[in-house]
Write a structure and sequence with these properties.
Layout: H1 12-89, E1 98-110, E2 119-124, E3 127-132, E4 140-162, E5 172-181, E6 193-194, H2 197-212
């Protein structure tokens, strides 16, 4: 028996085969863990992206709503301010405004002094003469009934000029020249127009009471 007969015998092929199996198991385990970790990271990233996308959409929606609200409020304020400036420039009357003015109807009645004859007898220096009745017009007396009439402003014409045209430091004056209505044939003065029915009715009552005295 030789010196090495008692030593165990290792087959290199068996060693390589066992090493290959162990290596394959290690690599497979590492790859599976890597795949699992990658999948978990992808799921987590997807979840984060969904949250971020939701927050971004909510932020955009909120901003869009805020922008639209701000735009509407700005347009409303601009319209109101523009209307106010227009009223100041036109002394309170602008196109499309509802206004009232005083309208009148004439009522004719027979003169009680001359009895409708347009002639009266008077004594002049002891002589009786027939003259035109001073209390009527051709035997008739005119009575006016004043009442409010509604219309809409169609256009306003005004000028803005120096108080003294020859002096640059004389200040400014705003004059409304003409105001036209939809149904009225000619121009109106601002003094003859009223913003409310109550104001116009009060002016009509004043004229009616004055004429009845």
């Amino acid at each position: 028996m030789g010196y090495y007969d008692d030593e165990p015998y290792y087959n290199p092929e068996d060693f390589l085969e066992e090493y290959e199996v162990n290596l394959r198991e290690i690599i497979t385990k590492a790859v599976n863990e890597k795949i699992k970790k990658t999948i978990e990271d992808l799921v987590l990233e997807k979840s984060r992206n969904e949250v971020l996308t939701k927050e971004r959409n909510e932020f955009r929606t909120a901003n869009r709503n805020s922008e639209q609200t701000y735009k509407k409020e700005f347009e409303k304020a601009l319209k109101e301010n523009t209307k106010e400036v227009e009223k100041k420039l036109s002394c309170g009357f602008t196109p499309h405004d509802d206004v009232w003015y005083i309208k009148s109807d004439c009522i004719y009645s027979k003169c009680e002094v001359c009895g409708g004859n347009y002639k009266v007898k008077v004594n002049v220096l002891g002589k009786e003469k027939e003259v035109d009745c001073p209390h009527c017009s051709y035997g008739k007396v005119n009575h006016y009934n004043y009442y409010p009439k509604q219309d809409i402003v169609s256009s306003v014409y005004f000028n803005y000029h120096r108080k003294d045209r020859n002096r640059k430091d004389s200040g400014l004056v705003l004059n409304v020249e003409k105001i036209y209505l939809d149904k009225y044939d000619s121009s109106m003065s601002q003094d003859n127009l009223y913003h409310t029915l109550e104001e116009c009715q009060a002016a009509c009552d004043k004229r009616n009471n004055k004429d009845s005295i």
